[in-house]
Amino acid sequence: KKDPGIMKLFVYKSLEQLLKTCFIATSFLVISLWLIIGLVQHWTVANIVLTSAGWALILWLCFSYIYKKTLIAFKRASMHLEAVHNDDYCQYAKPAFRAGKVKEFHLDLDNLSSHLQLLKSRYDQHIFLVYRLIDQLDTPIMVFDQHPQLTYANGAFNELFPQPWQIFRHSSPELLGLEFIDNNWHFKEKQRDNKWQIRHSEFIEQGQTHQLMVFVNIESALRQSQLDAWQQLIRVLGHEINNSLTPVSALAQGLSLKAQGKREKQALTVITERCQHLQDFVSRYASISKPFHLNCQILSVMNIAKRIQGLLKDIPLQVELKTERFWADPAFIEQVLLNIIKNAVEASEPGGKIKLTFSETVNSSLIEVVDSGHGFANLDNLFVPLYSTKQNGQGIGLSFCRNIIEHHKGTIKLVNNDNSPGVTVSITLPLVNQEKQ
Length: 437
Description:
The chain has helices spanning 4-8, 15-40, 45-85, 101-136, 190-195, 218-258, 262-289, 301-311, 330-347, 397-407, 432-436, and strands spanning 141-144, 150-153, 178-181, 184-187, 196-205, 208-217, 297-300, 317-321, 325-328, 354-360, 364-370, 411-416, 423-430. By secondary structure, it is an alpha+beta fold.
């Protein structure tokens, strides 16, 4: 067995320690041999001392040169590796030797730098494409760095907050009203949390871990699912009712021509009229399920206001213009405003004033219709098809209005007034420059 104590003597913690040990050992052997030769040859003490000092000097110079060249080779390699660590793949260190293992090692470093530069170039292209894709999506997306602080967001950010995302740069998720519960992000505000589902993932950029949050509007998805169900129901009912009414109406018209008695003719006429009424009723509801295409353009607020006032001459309509133009389909937006204003008139007391306001916020055009009625006891069901608060209402108007506004990528809301009776209907539409982009 080898003695562990002896083995420890040959274990070196650094290259410098090994080189120094080799120098000391070599110097000791050379000088010892020289002393022995001097004693055998009967040299004088002065000769032995001077020649030994000369050998020591020669050995020291040789060692210093080897030591310096060895450390320079490692230092240059270390500089190259440091450049790679800092993602600088264009800096190459010159090898200390033109051939041999050191030259091969530097060639390997150069090949590694070229390979890493190629990978970084591909990765940067992927990151660039990711950010381009984020900008193109109409779903709010936020990017947080490792701290975490907000570093980027797309244009749909204004669906969550009314200001541009740059105002919130370097804000933490907590400052944005977010909290991390059960491995998922949520809005602290219950109303927002019920509307938005947050999906998150991580990616690496420039060696740092970033967090990507995607905000999915589940309210619109649920509403679209609900609308699809109502449309399917209306199509099925409309088809069955029309198939039943058509032969009944034709048969009633044929019998009325043959009927002799006045009472029989009146009864058949009533049947024919009611069949026609039901057919009209089904046709109106079928309009909800029909697709339509918008022809949006820049509209003059003044022209739209004058046209609305001309069509509603008997209604005390107060118009306030705080902007000059907005972006919408002229026919459909006019239909929406007429429907909302008529609803406001029916909800208000006789002689009550209706206020129509056109304005503009930082991110959208805003249209408001304010009445002085009694308000609504249940605001949640107002947009549900077939639901109506009117005695003779059919529950189609507001559903159709919301469908039109959402096709404009806008929103429509109804709220009861806080300090006065009545309801405020708010319609937000994208700004002109946002749509044109």
